[in-house]
Design goal:
The chain is mainly α and 83 residues long. The chain has 2 domains: 30 residues; 52 residues, no CATH class. The chain is built from 3 helices and no strands. Bound molecules: zinc ion (ZN). The site of zinc ion has 8 residues, from helix 3.
């Protein structure tokens, strides 16, 4: 009757691996570099200027779309709803 114990141990290893992977990804979200920046805006698809990609590591939106997103987030906050 070692099967159940073995399977449980394997499952725990899997879960720990997932947690570590998740932790790793989360950590890296805070340490973005210009190489993580998108070359094209995920909002409108236009090219994001190189200066912006360097100035805002991990950037995904062009200036215009970022302003829209900020405005929507601020409006949602004013209305008491999470963005
Ligand atoms: Zn855009």
């Amino acid at each position: 009757m070692t099967d159940i114990a073995d399977r449980a141990a394997e499952r725990i290893d899997e879960l720990n691996g997932d947690a570590l992977a998740e932790h790793y990804r989360h950590d890296h979200a805070h340490g973005k570099t210009p190489a993580d920046s998108a070359e094209t805006c995920s909002g409108c698809g236009c090219a994001i200027p190189e200066e912006r990609r360097i100035a805002v590591p991990g950037v995904a939106l062009c200036t215009e779309c970022q302003q829209d997103a900020d405005w929507i987030a601020a409006a949602a906050k004013r209305n008491g709803r999470p963005a």
